[in-house]
Design a protein that fits this description.
Blueprint lengths: L1 H4 E8 L7 E2 L4 E10 L7 E16 L5 E18 L12 E10 L9 E2 L3 E12 L6 E6 L1 E2 L7 H4 L2 E11 L2 E12 L3 E2 L4 E10 L5 E14 L6 E15 L3 E11 L14 E13 L5 E9 L19 E5 L3 E6 L7 H6 L3
Parallel strand pairs: 2-10, 13-19
Antiparallel strand pairs: 1-3, 3-6, 4-5, 4-8, 7-8, 8-9, 11-12, 11-21, 12-14, 14-17, 15-16, 15-18, 18-19, 20-21
Length: about 350
């Protein structure tokens, strides 16, 4: 069998910067190597570059059925080696064989690699060996692809939000509480620290607790978006304390984004990945004050994280009124409003 004839297959990518991450338009170069344990005939060696997204989950009660969708971004095949003397079946000697290869990732707005709860986005490099009277033997290698994040003034501008309410005990008002939250910007790198500047006012007679956490939201859709599946998880959290009768309290919470966290994905028709910093001001026996700050985690250049020399962003906001509290959210966050729609509760 061919599986016993070939061993020690390896793909060695060669990049000057030493990175193993590729993006749209990048040129991929390297060498494939394998060892033949005995003399054999190989008609051709092909290299296929694929990019695709797929989602799948099951739904229903007793009669469960599957739901799935698939999007193919590209599928290219190149020939690395062609045996021009296949008619006479020239044989390859046993030993180690090495072949260079070059291929280019096509230009396009492709989403970053991702593997989640009910779907994945995968980019693969497949090397196939064609032998006479044998099925094609394939070796698959995963390519780590990252979409370059397009930084905008909105992503570089500070984020801020506020919330307030009056703490009540039956028909007696205990005192108002309020919270203002500010982030330096909305775009971050994996492994980076997010500084959360908070201003609290606790005029009630009860001590309060501050909590911040990084939430990841995964959304999976069918092609027509007729059905969907949602998955949320907390990636990091931080807590603090605010005393009673504290008219002004300042606190800075720090959350470290995990270095292995996937990038934000908003350019895939059947899969989305988004992140939000949730800050809660919790007073005992009262509803929590909550401010949501959606952020973007992506393939950013460190030099691009400096703010522009002068950017004027008018302070325009809208208010959501409820019986006990008012939440103020800057309108430039509306580009990532899906989190607000799912998480704001009257």
């Amino acid at each position: 069998m061919f599986g016993q004839t070939i061993k020690n297959f390896n793909i060695n990518f060669q990049r000057r910067d030493g990175s193993n991450v590729y993006s749209s338009g990048d040129l991929m170069t390297g060498k494939i190597s394998f060892e033949l344990t005995k003399e054999c005939v190989i008609n051709s060696i092909t290299l296929t570059l694929k990019g695709k997204a797929n989602v799948a989950w099951r739904k229903g009660g007793k009669k469960r059925h599957g739901v799935s969708a698939k999007v193919v971004y590209f599928n290219f095949k190149n020939v690395i080696m062609m045996n021009r003397e296949a008619a006479v079946q020239s044989k390859f000697p046993p030993g180690t064989h090495v072949y260079p290869f070059t291929c280019q990732i096509p230009q396009g707005d492709f989403p970053s690699s991702f593997k989640g709860f009910a779907g994945q986005i995968a980019y693969t490099l497949i090397v196939g060996f064609d032998r006479p009277w044998h099925l094609t033997k394939e070796f698959e290698t995963v390519v780590n692809f990252a979409n370059r994040c397009n930084l905008t003034y909105e992503l570089m501008a500070p984020l801020s939000g506020s919330n307030s309410m009056t703490v009540c005990s039956l028909w007696c008002a205990s005192g108002p509480i309020s919270m203002n939250v500010r982030l330096e910007r909305a775009a971050f790198l994996p492994g980076e620290e997010v500084k959360i500047m908070c201003e609290f006012s606790n005029s009630s007679s009860r001590p309060a607790t501050t909590k911040a956490r990084l939430l990841q939201k995964q959304m999976f859709y069918t092609l027509n978006h007729g059905q969907h599946r949602k998955f949320e998880q907390t990636l990091a959290r931080q807590t603090g304390l605010v005393g009673r009768h504290s008219p002004e309290a300042h606190s800075e919470l720090t959350i470290t984004i995990p270095s292995t966290v996937p990038f934000s994905i908003s350019n895939c028709a059947i899969l989305e990945v988004s992140y939000v910093i949730e800050v809660c001001f919790s007073v005992k026996y009262s509803p929590d004050l909550t401010v949501l700050c959606p952020i973007v985690i992506g393939n950013l250049l460190q030099d691009s994280l400096a703010p522009p020399p002068h950017v004027y962003l008018p302070k325009i906001s809208f208010q959501v009124y409820s019986l006990f509290r008012t939440i103020v959210i800057p309108t430039f966050l509306c580009t990532l409003s899906s989190f607000y729609c799912d998480n704001l509760q009257p």
